């Protein structure tokens, strides 16, 4: 195996970790609300800018900036869900209304970022310096931090969903919203918190990836598209499926680029998506539903 291919596999794991984190957050939102959140990429973008402001402008240590920025995005997302998205769910035609609303939020946030920070890319300092040399490969510690942080966040989210009262409420709401209400689960509040939690995961992905790719008003668009692909590939509403699909997509995409060229990156990623849903329309971990 050539050194270039090994390097691309490593890059694929790094990219896959971000895809998995983004997909997990989007799955959490869709699972509880059944809403296609087209503003999801902008919460990723807000995380990047919030982290930039707190570290560069305010001089805050990056671990504290990560936590505070995530809390700020969580609060903003909760207000957005409670004030815009949740009220639409009680109206006829809510599925199209929420698509229009989240698209509007996406455009508004992009234009707000453009007006405040301009269109140029802004660099974010590395959180950790130095490189690790393994078998002739030089891997920056920042990239290793991305994988480690994504793994901790995904594992922590899985633990919250499995062992906490909030997690039980999320699972009950995702399974049957009306039945959950009958059993005393506050489905509306749970959905709002799940929306905010998933958006905070996107923001954290934006923060840990910002030192590699910099920040801009449109940085969330390509990642949001990949997150949607991951959710479909893993199976709608499947947290485990989103994680597995994210890692798979990142590795396949990176290896495909190594064997062809970077121009084929997007084509390879979505070709994998099409191939999987052609064979398994319900996704890798989705539940097959019969059509009558």
TrEMBL record:
It is found in: Cell membrane. One of its GO terms (biological process) is amino acid transport. The keyword Membrane applies. Keywords: Amino-acid transport, Cell membrane, Membrane, Transmembrane, Transmembrane helix, Transport. Signal peptide: none annotated. It is a multi-pass membrane protein. One of its GO terms (molecular function) is transmembrane transporter activity. One of its GO terms (cellular component) is plasma membrane. The chain crosses the membrane at residues 12-31, 43-60, 66-89, 96-117, 144-163, 191-213, 267-287. It comes from the Bacteria. Its main location: membrane. Belongs to the binding-protein-dependent transport system permease family. LivHM subfamily. This is Branched-chain amino acid ABC transporter permease. The lineage of its organism: Bacteria, Pseudomonadati, Pseudomonadota, Alphaproteobacteria, Hyphomicrobiales.
